[in-house]
Amino acid sequence: MLHYSRILSATRKFLVKAAPPTPPRWLATQTIPQNMARQLTDADRARAQAYLDAMEDAVAAIPEYDPERIQAACEEVARAHPIDDALREAYSAELLKKMADPVSVSYLSSNFLKDDAPWGLVVYRGSYNNDEAWERMLVQIRRDVDTALELAGQQELAKRHDLVIVDDRSRFDGAGPDQIRHHFTDWAVGELQRNWSPGTQIPSKGALLSATGIMDYLYQCGPRYNFCLFVDDTCLESLDRMAMPVVKLISRRWTQGGERQQGSDDDETPGWEGGVTNNEFEDVGWVYVHMCDYVDVQSQLEESDDWVDVYVRPPLMRFETGFKHSPGFWRRGGSFWDGSESVG
After folding, report:
1. With contact defined as beta carbons under 8 Å apart, do 315 and 328 qualify?
2. How many whole angstroms separate alpha carbon 295 and alpha carbon 152?
3. pLDDT score, position 341
4. pLDDT exceeds cutoff 70 at 340
5. β-strands 246-251, 164-166: how paired?
């Protein structure tokens, strides 16, 4: 049975804005109408769910990728369960709102921050091969913020969201995570100083970087000061290669040679990104995350120590077990439809 997200490109025109019982994460990137024109009845919901169930069953019954069979199956379901776009959109919006988790920004109430301190991450551009793709990525991230806040019923947080774009070709064209981390550390210090609570002495750069425990103010003040996003060639290419495009999430606190889990340095399956070993448990200081998880990952990383719950050595991602569909598979000669594999 094919993973649901792997049939997205072939069935998108039939499924867009339609949520199955357990919807794929890409659905969260869809724009939700501000005012649903259609008020759903129980009969509407039953029709929409029947359509979705039938579509899921029809595609799952196709063991291998066959575009003609997939298209025929989708068309057959559409004929057997006719629903209009208004119903699909209204039902999708209703389901997504029910399933949305609250956006957690409790760190904004820190005594160290001024009352109107912003939340949001810095995005570094490290690839200059495709301006159009870069603009698409920024548009998508901003749209995902609006969608996530609307689904959670927390639109009031939008006014405090600040997506910082670092786009400097002379400094970052072709840069890697280490160079980005170095610049981000300086930026985070300055940003915390700018957002420091008035009426108290602003710590120096040295004090902020050397502090530990409860005096580690950077750590205490949330993801904005501890993590940043990085967009390189692979990330831009993922816009057209993956159902859910990716960006790189970099940890500021990571240091080369830091503590990592024990494991063989000579794994049978090479291909790990970053780091100095073939050990799948080595922490290389960054991970791939889905672009549509921009808001969600900040909730997950309220505390810097939560990194261990998010981290998976790249190119793997959470809930994935093989390289064949992980970011950059097209650079490794892979195909989106060539099956699956297990690592190790």
Report:
1. yes
2. 11
3. 40
4. no
5. unpaired
**pLDDT for residue 30 is more than 90:** no
Asked if 103 and 146 touch (Cβ cutoff 8 Å), the reply is no
Picking from 248, 246, 242, the residue whose alpha carbon sits closest to that of residue 229 is 248
Q: At what angle do helices 8-15 and 42-60 cross, to 10 degrees?
A: 160
Residue 102: HSE in the Cβ half-sphere, 13 Å Cα cutoff: 3
**Are the C-beta atoms of residues 21 and 99 closer than 8 Å to each other?**
no
pLDDT (tens digit per residue) in 246-280: 999 999 999 876 555 544 555 556 689 998 888 88
Task: For tokens 């957002």, name the residue.
Answer: 195
Report the C-alpha gap between 59 and 74 in whole angstroms. Answer: 8
How far apart (Å, rounded) are the C-alpha atoms in residues 242 and 304?
29
CA neighbours within 13 Å on the CB side: how many for 193?
14
Closest among 89, 128, 122, 121 to 105, alpha carbons compared: 121
The CA–CA distances, whole Å, from 75 to 19, 21, 55, 81 equal 18, 20, 9, 10
pLDDT of 339 over the 50 cut: no
Q: For residue 244, count other CB atoms closer than 10 A to its CB.
A: 19
Three-state SS string across the chain, please?
A: CCCHHHHHHHHHHHHCCCCCCCCCHHHHHCCCCCCCCCCCCHHHHHHHHHHHHHHHHHHHCCCCCCHHHHHHHHHHHHHHCCCCHHHHHHHHHHHHHHHCCCCCCHHHHCCCECCCCCECCEEEECCCCCHHHHHHHHHHHHHHHHHHHHHCCCHHHHHHECCEEECCHHHHCCCCHHHHHHHHHHHHHHHHHHCECCCCCCCCHHHHHHCCHHHCHHHHCCHHHCEEEEECHHHHHHHHHCCCCEEEEEECCCCCCCCCCCCCCCCCCCCCCCCCCCCCCCCCCEEEEEHHHHHHHHHHCCCHHHHHHHCCCCCCCCCCCCCCCCCCHHHHCCCCCCCCCCCC
89: its two tokens: 């959109």
Nearest to 11 by CA among 64, 72, 61, 53: 72
